[in-house]
Amino acid sequence: AAFVPQELTTVRVQDPRVQNEGSWNSYVDYKIFLHTNSKAFTAKTSCVRRRYREFVWLRRQLQRNAGLVPVPELPGKSTFFVGSTDEFIEKRRQGLQQFLEKVVQNVVLLSDSRLHLFLQSQLSVPEIEACVQGQGSQTVTDAILHYAMSRCGWVQEQESRP
């Protein structure tokens, strides 16, 4: 039999950053780095930033489309967290990573184009919805390739923060 290379997808949730620090609408976002040789993905590597609220949206959408397939749990939205903020953010980061690791191993969930736009494009949640429903200016694949080509995912990495 011909040797078929094993499909491998590595997904990492890293580098939590507080945005709008000190203001009432501050939030933490996380870098999602994805590296894969799977044909399921348009881009072989990608890097985007997403916040917890967007993960919650993604999980709800996946659940809606997955039918009876159980969707992995997200880390809890604990408001009564005992301990330091850093500790809370780190726990959440681990939970989000475990969530995505399970999601990308599930064939049914992988067939949802919202997941791909979430992981591999710069589109906001409303833009993802529009794109999936065919109302955006680009197709799902175009949006992902456009982002991959622009390499803004990597530029983000190199820009030094003031």
TrEMBL record:
Pfam families: PX. The keyword Cytoplasm applies. GO terms for molecular function: phosphatidylinositol phosphate binding. GO terms for cellular component: endosome. Its main location: cytoplasm. CDD domains: PX_SNX10. It is a peripheral membrane protein. Residues 8-125 form the PX domain. The keyword Protein transport applies. Belongs to the sorting nexin family. It is found in: Cytoplasm; Endomembrane system; Endosome. Transmembrane segments: none annotated. One of its GO terms (biological process) is intracellular protein transport. This is SNX11 protein. Keywords: Cytoplasm, Endosome, Lipid-binding, Membrane, Protein transport, Transport.
